[in-house]
């Protein structure tokens, strides 16, 4: 028999690669332009810094500059409104000695800030001690949640200052009445956010706890608290904003030492520069409180 010729399209058999042959392959040469330094390997540190400055730092600076320009323009067309330069000079003089004490009705702005923070801390602390556990109970037990729903719906929309006469009647003093207003106005965000977080815990977790016969204390520490913590901190952030917002108005009505009373006293003295300074102080302190709670939320995020 005559042997059949091999097809010209049949590829020749390839030899099996030797073991560990990749170790002996020469390194791939870089392009000539990259070797010469004409093409950078990636964005340099200077480029990253410029990009960050352009997209992160420039917009806030432009916003502040626009605000100052509008303020200056408004001061030019208003006889009683001081401009940024005059307000800055008054602020430098005011904060040169913020803790002077010349009697109960004449104290530095530092003492007024500390007294306002003290009242906010007391009212907010009591609201947290009562509101957070109440939120857990309301969210955990449906029957109690239905009982509390009409009371919360009725009292939550009430203006905080409407509670001030009740506090004056009960406590017979302006200081405790201001703390009462802070308490009653900051308790609702903590109750509602905590209860909402408890109600959103997956039912499978609670079913497993029921199958394992976990006591209620273990259910709280191992399941509810870690899951509800983000909602709870959100309620705390909202509550501290409301508390700091209300304290100025409450102190305007009750008097004594505090930022609210200081603003009202400066208005009676027709010192508009100090009123503007107090507005900025209230905003800066509120911003610092908010940022502190944001850092706390990031630290305890589950």
Task: Describe the protein.
By secondary structure, this protein is an all-alpha fold. It has helices at residues 32-36, 45-76, 84-94, 109-140, 142-155, 164-171, 174-199, 203-211, 216-254, 259-268, 272-299. Helix 3 packs across helix 11, helix 4 runs parallel beside helix 7 and helix 4 packs across helix 10 (259-268). The radius of gyration is 33 Å and the shape is globular. The N and C termini lie far apart (81 Å).
Assembly status:
single chain
Q: Pick out the low-confidence regions.
A: 1-16, 32-39
Helix-strand pattern: HHHHHHHHHHH
Q: Quick one: how many beta strands?
A: 0
Largest sheet: none
Distance between the termini: 81 Å
| Coarse shape | globular
Strand proportion: under 5%
Task: Give me the secondary-structure topology.
Blueprint: H1 32-36, H2 45-76, H3 84-94, H4 109-140, H5 142-155, H6 164-171, H7 174-199, H8 203-211, H9 216-254, H10 259-268, H11 272-299
Helix pairs in contact: 3-11, 4-5, 4-7, 4-9, 4-10, 6-7, 7-9, 9-10, 9-11, 10-11
What would a concise description of this structure say?
This protein is 71% helix and 0% strand. The protein is mostly helical and 302 residues long. It is globular and about 70 Å long.
Task: Please supply descriptive tags for the structure shown above.
disordered N terminus, mainly alpha, single chain
